[in-house]
Description:
By secondary structure, the chain is α+β, with helices and mostly antiparallel strands. It is 34% helix and 34% strand. The chain has helices spanning 5-17, 63-80, 95-105, and strands spanning 29-33, 36-46, 49-57, 85-91, 111-113, 116-122. The protein has a three-stranded antiparallel β-sheet with strand order 1-2-3.
Amino acid sequence: MANGADDYNRAYKLMRAEGIEDELAFPTVMAIKDGQLTGFISTHISNDMIVAGPMVIRSGARRYWTLIRLIEHYENVMRSIGITSYIFSIDANDEKWTADIKELYGVDPYAEQEGRKFFVRNI
């Protein structure tokens, strides 16, 4: 988990390298391999809702396994601080991820807005 300014600076640098601009907040969980940040998932609050994201995985990294491990650790941190659910979104046009989320978590999107499909994840 990110625990200092240096960790957050590494995350912002990775976001810029991947062409993403967003804000990061607690908790932010990071995947580090051989001393290099390969990905992270952060949190933001929107309309009094806990929203997971951004999630950034370095291009060329083992994306699927990094994604799964980041989500596992993110949910462990969320549970440890008393959070029982959160919201996340994916690109509305990504039917593969929509199907994967349905298979993995048994949930369908509850809303679609501005090109994003939104899901609630109960943990």
